[in-house]
Amino acid sequence: MKNQLFNDNTMKLGVMAFNCSHGSTVTMADGVWPMTWSDNATLARMVDNSGMEVLLPVGRWKGYGGDTNFNNRTFESFTWASGISAITEHCTVFATVHAPLIHPVAAAKMAATIDHISNGRFAINLVAGWFKNEFQMFNSLWREHDQRYEYASEWIELVKRLWIETKEFDFQGHFFEGKALWSEPKPLQQPRLPIMNAGSSTQGQIFSAKHADMNFVMLRQKDDTSDIKQINNLKVLASDLGRSSQCWIHAYVVCRDTEKEAKDYLHHYVVEKGDDVAVKNMLDIFGLQSKTLEPAVLDDFKYHFKAGHGGYPLVGTPEQIVSDIEKLSQMGVDGILLSWVDYLQEAQQWIDEVMPLLVQAGLRQPFIPS
Ligand SMILES: Cc1cc2nc3c(=O)[nH]c(=O)nc-3n(C[C@H](O)[C@H](O)[C@H](O)COP(=O)(O)O)c2cc1C
């Protein structure tokens, strides 16, 4: 079976962060995602039947305090992906994996297992570490930023060998060593599973260009020119290494019959009901520990973080949203991972009202379930 990440749709789509309480919205608005398995299963089946390409969990180990305690309850992403794979048939199912928190020998086998359960639909979003407080729970060494990517490089090199080598091998690296390493069964997808990475620093982008099939970009949204530059830069980095890399973004969606209704609702859940304490906690950790954003830029991001974890705003009528997506496609974006306040209701509306317009705009093919 062909992994849907590589199908012919010009703009690929997926849904993210529904393995976490509050999903991507840092708000106390009514209808926000409470996160139960039953709702996860319903949403996954709905997305799978719609022809979208991706189901992506985030890798999160604790919440961010405030009244929401945003992302306090999260399903672990490998086990989540295993369950989701068993009840879906079409979408690529991801796990978001913190390289330093799971040993490559365990990760290679868990990934191969899910690739079999999903019949070749599994993929990995490999992250190097973002929030120090999560690592403290594991008593795991919090390496200096760039070294985290060196660690992740060796991690993925070792995992890839475990996925293809049919004879036992010794491994002596800078971070890992082991004797007579071996893993069976191999993943169905050969020589390796698709890999995504969301690094935005120079080192993160170099890692992505070298190892990932998809870079998950957080567009700075200063202006279109700088966003296009950011996307092109990633694609050039990969093509200089003889590779190609898709550019994916995360977008938060507020789709209503009129632009005013959409903007009013956005204002309601971000400004009237947003959790300023949780977002401050998150950005304090983020600002201190990531090289990605300057402090001045963080202020702008507060709004976007409450609205949708720093994602790109798709706010308006179905027609306005499709026109924004056409622009994103022209800018070089290959895929969008969506989130909403009320996933079940709003994803259904997206499927009914936005997806047909994307087909009309030539950005997607009509979906015919196999
Ligand atoms: C849309 C998006 C989703 C992300 N999801 C996770 C996640 O689930 N877990 C995590 O630890 N980091 C996550 N990250 C953080 C990235 O892996 C990365 O650490 C961050 O973008 C900072 O880049 P840098 O590591 O190159 O400094 C995410 C980033 C983005 C943009």
Protein architecture, described:
- The protein is an alpha/beta fold and 370 residues long.
- The protein has a single domain (4-360), classed as TIM Barrel.
- It contains 12 helices and 11 strands.
- Bound molecules: flavin mononucleotide (FMN).
Structural class: alpha/beta
Dominant shape: globular
The name of the CATH topology is: TIM Barrel
The CATH C-level class name: Alpha Beta
**How many domains?**
1
The helical percent reads 40-55%
**Contiguous runs where pLDDT drops below 50 for at least 5 residues:** none
Which molecules are bound in this entry?
flavin mononucleotide
What is the CA-atom radius of gyration, in angstroms? 20 Å
Give the SSE string. EHEHEHEHHEEEHEHEHHHEHEH
Major beta-sheet overview = 8 strands, parallel, barrel
CATH superfamily assignment?
Luciferase-like domain
N- and C-termini, Cα separation = 11 Å
Q: What is the CATH architecture annotation?
A: Alpha-Beta Barrel
For the largest sheet, list the strands in their spatial order: 1-2-3-4-7-8-9-11
Please, what is the average pLDDT? 94
Number of beta strands: 11
Number of helices: 12
β-sheet strand percentage: 15-25%
Concise structural overview:
The protein has 370 residues and is of the alpha/beta class.
Labels describing this entry:
15% strand, binds flavin mononucleotide, eight-stranded parallel β-barrel, alpha/beta, 12 helices, TIM Barrel, single chain, globular, 370 residues
